[in-house]
Design goal:
The chain is built from 12 helices and 3 strands, in the order ααααααβααααααββ. The chain has 247 residues and is mainly α. The longest helix has 27 residues. The chain is globular and about 50 Å long.
Length: 247
Amino acid sequence: MADAAQDKTERLADAKFAGIEHCDPNTLRKLLIQYRFFTLYYIPDLSYLVAKLPFGKLRSFMAHILYEELGCGDENQAHPELYDAFLRSIGVDQESLETGIVENLAMLDEIQLSLLRSPYPYGVGLRGMGGECMCQIYLANLYSRFIHNPFIQENRDKVDWRFWEIHVGPVDVHHREETRALLNEMILHTPELSRQISDGFDASLKTWDQFWGNIVEAAKPSCAVETIRFDAHASTRSHGARDSSYR
């Protein structure tokens, strides 16, 4: 299941990110900004998954990943902070940093609700395999392309690379491989869970495809999408009008 999904995801990523090497700086920034919101949702998503999992290797490993995502005790090293530092280093201003695509934020909300409402095996497929395994494939493909963009090449020494050093390096590759191994072990010992894990994984694959598809579409110069100001510290979000400036 995972091998076939990996091949399919690599093909989808290839198609979606084609041409990033040549796009203008503003388009590149718009493509890169929106992943920020996944990093903000992923930490609470992992927290909910860890809370639901039974004691065992997978729970401990997911908790370890959560600890790393939060910066291993240093809030300044939390991965959302590192990604924001990367975005600022390529010229993203604060207003743009907080502007999310409404449809994508709604998807992230729905995933979080699914984690809360669904049995833990579904969450394992949705955010275990879907979060650690498929996310890394998209990121690696994206990175392999945007580093060749002339704007990035010209400003390479000014870019804050810390987020990417983690997420396209051996740390994240190990996370992907270990997650797959632990999930295979879980399915081997409790095969009755495989259907729910598979359902969650399938939902994750569809969401990733749509998530990045929306981002690529929104980055096109002629496209206007509905956006929203997102405040990670607030309990509610203030909706904005359809944003003609996101072009």
